[in-house]
User: Which sequence fits this backbone?
């Protein structure tokens, strides 16, 4: 786990807010604002945060499904932010994504076999159709769907099965890293654990690396090796899972953990109820972006934006007082 | 056991079917539970298990093709299913109020928040406009909305998701109902906002003489707020008991399965005990026990004969043929405890 | 798809539409049997007399014309004007039967080519957006700003008389609706996750349009196109009526109506004397347009996602 498979350096992605007849840009949604992190080979990095924190944009920008405004995306030593679009299309073989919504992520007018074969066809992985479909059958069986269902359309499957098809589509290219964008959030409780187990098994089998995006800390705790917490376009804490859950440093991360409802009637926890809502990413607060909701905020928090500092080995935190 | 107050609502063998083009969907097909004053009943289950349809059936808010075809809903001693639409209108909002999952669609986008709260007050209590407005401001303050004098004149789109849900709660509380039904009230919200809303609901319950029915898919939410729990699967209540018993001594394989399959913040789990199979489609429920294709305790009997909801001990009913075996394994296999 | 067919056949209105269309197809296919041509140019309407005045239904071929065919050595297998003759002795029945083929040709060709142009413009415009969208949509706006019938008439006049020129004019001013419709649906559909998924697989843009976007957006266009086939035939007929359409004597419904232009009222004291010159061509046009509209209407009911509820 020493080799960085993916390095994100000072990544910035803003979306223009356009108004009026001439579509003039009147402001920017600062979805991802100068973030840096690394993903090592074979690990699962959990990227957690609430809606609007920029976690999905981060994944899409790494894949250049959204063009980054600034920053570098270094994958296996190659800077993806600078290469041409046609070259990027080839790189996508190595980096795949699994989406949240199992319904809208599969084309309703395509058969399952063609959905899964599309990537193989694009990257010329097999010589002929027969071999390609044979591989589709293997992949389907691997994700737990009988191969003979490959001639069906996606609407004949349940949500969990569709998610399995989405996983097979990503696996078909034998990628090195898979971004799981809230891949289990839309699923029913009893189905969620099936998919989590499947993702874990596949990781072991194919030596996959995951960037696992979720808002549910219980899932993050179960599946990740390391945790990254985002708030309003910024990374506020990075740590190994055990370290993160036992020694949470950032006040926001602490509040986030305490907010998770635990299915245990005797679970005693410190209840931190944050006041107010997440501010708009179009107009984030000055200084530390969390300071208007932070119980520990002092004068400096409203003025100076804290940097992400390494507090302990491998434990980074962006708070003026996290060393205390 | 709980020290129960007066019986407020008793649902007996409720059946609501949807008559669709493809066939009859038995969305609710045997729901029994009781709600006592001062307590919170949690209804937990996955999508299409019939938990929301149960709520809508109690309120008689279902439209074609949905129809309640059997059972009783005894509210304060009277069967709501026999009430006329006119009588129901007087009960809805005043006696039984509902909080919905998606506050944006449940609120009218072109009317101010204040107007929407006042409306019910003026209708049910013949309040004047000014009285209703003052009461609205008071309610908004009660649900923790800052600057209520200002917010009362705003439109739903000007509020955040959490604020809208607070407004929904204020509306539900406006007529002092004796029963509050909350249908996944925090599902659409972020975790920290969910915590705010749950906290608010808990504090409101402190002084609440009525009862709350909390419908959710989240066992964590249930653990935080409910006193008594009904677990639903495929249109039926499969287990019904108090909170501690559900978490410590579950007797239905589905309840047991759910508890060991979810990722936990309070525990380090080696591997999730996933329940195999798919959530059944209400149009094609299996024969026998509806859970039998996914159950690891399954016997021949389960495939043929449907068990009924049986009281195994005081305050604990289960719909299963293999209660003893489940009980034995649950005692060994459950990882709940003081943490 | 089975559901679509089932619905098409279970609805009375659409059933009438389908039966009417079927009859028209039969007429077009078996035109040589129903009205056997007398010369090599089968679209040329035979004349039954040299009279300028229309002749009533059942009028037999006049002796002098029969003599010409006999002289040419043509076997006259068709010698009675069942629906009467139009101005100049042109046989109405023959003109209508062979005109059915013309109607199908005009309707289908103009609509298919317009749809293709619309798809091309609309999908590129919607998918790529930006300056390409601006340019293509402004061009569309310019074409839309001309009144359809007037523009088509002017263009046909410039290009010269003839059915092919009419079709060119109809296509030139008929594609914009489809372009807008396709663009709108593509703008909505390209936000679907499966499109992002295809991009993430590295699929090229043109393929994404062809394999994902068009199959998911084409149906409203098909509905629109089906309904427009009828109105294209009406416009073509109008152009013929105005004298810029098919050449004189060509089997075309518009031509048949235009023959009736001077005879609609009838002779003084004999109102409606020449009713058959208007009635038969009119009935054909009305039924043809009605058939397409009924079928299009039902298609829309079936495919409209708001009415459909589920996929």
Assistant:
């Amino acid at each position: 786990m020493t080799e960085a498979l993916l390095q994100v350096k000072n990544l910035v992605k803003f979306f223009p807010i356009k108004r009026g007849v001439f579509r003039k840009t009147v402001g920017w949604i600062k979805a991802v604002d100068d973030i840096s992190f690394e993903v090592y080979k074979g690990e699962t990095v959990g990227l957690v945060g609430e809606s609007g924190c920029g976690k999905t944009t981060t994944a899409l920008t790494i894949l250049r499904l959204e063009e980054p405004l600034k920053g570098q995306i270094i994958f296996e030593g190659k800077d993806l932010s600078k290469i041409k679009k046609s070259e990027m299309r080839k790189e996508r073989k190595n980096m795949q994504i699994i989406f949240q919504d199992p319904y809208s992520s599969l084309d309703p007018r395509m058969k399952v076999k063609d959905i899964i074969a599309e990537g193989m066809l694009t990257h010329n992985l097999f010589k002929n159709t027969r071999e390609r479909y044979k591989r589709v059958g293997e992949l389907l069986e691997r994700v737990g769907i009988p191969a003979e269902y490959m001639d069906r359309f996606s609407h004949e499957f349940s949500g969990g099965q569709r998610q399995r098809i989405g996983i097979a589509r990503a696996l078909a290219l034998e990628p090195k890293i898979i971004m799981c964008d809230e891949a289990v959030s839309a699923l029913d409780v009893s189905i969620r654990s099936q998919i989590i187990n499947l993702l874990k098994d596949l990781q072991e089998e194919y030596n996959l690396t995951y960037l696992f995006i979720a808002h549910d800390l219980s899932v993050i705790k179960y599946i990740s090796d390391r945790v990254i917490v985002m708030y309003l376009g910024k990374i506020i804490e990075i740590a190994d899972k055990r370290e993160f859950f036992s020694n949470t440093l950032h006040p926001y991360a602490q509040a986030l953990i305490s907010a998770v409802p635990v299915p245990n009637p005797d679970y005693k926890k410190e209840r931190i109820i944050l006041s107010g809502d997440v501010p708009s990413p179009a107009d984030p607060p000055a200084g530390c972006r969390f300071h208007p909701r932070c119980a520990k905020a002092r004068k400096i928090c409203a003025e100076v934006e804290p940097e992400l500092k390494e507090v302990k080995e491998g434990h980074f935190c962006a708070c003026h007082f996290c060393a205390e | 056991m709980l020290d129960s107050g007066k019986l407020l609502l008793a649902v007996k063998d409720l059946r609501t079917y949807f008559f669709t083009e493809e066939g009859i969907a038995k969305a609710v097909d045997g729901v029994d539970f009781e709600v006592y004053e001062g307590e919170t009943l949690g209804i937990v289950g996955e999508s299409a298990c019939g938990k929301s349809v149960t709520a809508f059936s109690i309120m008689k808010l279902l439209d074609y093709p949905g129809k309640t075809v059997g059972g009783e809903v005894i509210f304060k001693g009277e069967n709501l299913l026999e009430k006329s639409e006119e009588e129901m209108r007087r009960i809805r909002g005043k006696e039984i109020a509902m909080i919905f999952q998606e506050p944006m669609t449940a609120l009218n986008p072109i009317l101010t928040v204040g107007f929407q709260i006042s409306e019910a007050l003026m209708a049910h209590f013949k309040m004047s406009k000014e009285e209703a407005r003052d009461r609205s401001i008071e309610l908004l303050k009660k649900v923790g909305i800052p600057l209520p004098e200002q917010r009362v004149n705003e439109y739903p789109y000007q509020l955040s998701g959490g604020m809208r849900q607070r407004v929904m709660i204020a509306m539900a509380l406006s007529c002092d109902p004796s029963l509050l039904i909350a249908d996944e009230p925090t599902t659409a919200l972020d975790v920290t906002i969910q915590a705010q809303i749950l906290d608010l609901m808990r504090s409101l319950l402190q002084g609440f003489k009525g009862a709350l029915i909390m419908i959710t898919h989240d066992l964590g939410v249930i653990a935080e707020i409910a006193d008594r729990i009904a677990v639903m699967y495929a249109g039926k209540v499969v287990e019904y008991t108090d909170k501690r018993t559900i978490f410590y001594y579950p007797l239905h394989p589905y309840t047991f399965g759910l508890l060991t399959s979810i990722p936990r913040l309070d525990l380090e789990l080696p591997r999730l005990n996933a329940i195999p199979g798919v959530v059944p489609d209400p149009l094609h429920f299996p024969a026998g026990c509806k859970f039998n294709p996914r159950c690891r305790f399954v016997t021949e009997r389960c495939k043929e004969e449907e068990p009924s909801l049986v009281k195994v001990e005081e305050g604990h009913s289960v719909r299963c043929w293999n209660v003893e075996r489940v009980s034995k394994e649950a005692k060994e296999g459950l990882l709940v405890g003081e943490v | 798809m089975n559901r679509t067919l089932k619905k098409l056949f279970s609805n009375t209105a659409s059933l009438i539409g389908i039966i009417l269309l079927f009859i028209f197809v039969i007429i077009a296919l078996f035109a040589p049997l129903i009205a056997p041509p007398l010369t090599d140019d089968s679209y040329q309407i035979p004349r039954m007399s040299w009279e300028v005045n229309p002749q009533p239904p059942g009028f037999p071929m006049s002796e002098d014309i029969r003599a010409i065919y006999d002289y040419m050595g043509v076997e006259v297998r068709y010698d009675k004007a069942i629906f009467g003759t139009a101005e100049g002795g042109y046989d109405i029945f023959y003109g209508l039967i062979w005109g059915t083929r013309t109607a199908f040709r005009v309707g289908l060709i103009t609509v298919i080519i317009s749809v293709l142009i619309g798809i091309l413009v609309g999908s590129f415009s919607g998918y790529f957006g930006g300056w390409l969208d601006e340019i293509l949509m402004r061009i569309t706006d310019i074409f839309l700003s001309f009144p359809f019938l007037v523009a088509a008439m002017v263009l046909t006049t410039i290009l010269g008389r003839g059915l092919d020129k009419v079709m060119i004019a109809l296509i030139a001013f008929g594609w914009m609706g489809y372009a807008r419709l396709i663009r709108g649906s593509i703008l909505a559909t390209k936000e679907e996750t499966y499109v992002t998924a295809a991009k993430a697989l590295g699929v090229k843009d043109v393929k994404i349009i062809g394999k994902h976007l068009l199959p998911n957006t084409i149906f409203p266009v098909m509905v629109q196109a089906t309904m427009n086939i009828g109105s294209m035939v009406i416009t073509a007929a109008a152009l013929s009526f105005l004298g810029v359409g098919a050449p004189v004597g060509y089997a075309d419904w518009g031509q048949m109506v235009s023959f009736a232009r001077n005879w609609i009222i009838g002779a003084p004291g004999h109102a409606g004397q020449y009713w058959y010159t208007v009635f038969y061509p009119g009935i054909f046009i009305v039924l043809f347009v009605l058939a397409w509209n009924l079928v299009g209407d039902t298609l829309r009911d079936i495919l409209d996602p708001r009415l459909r509820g589920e996929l």
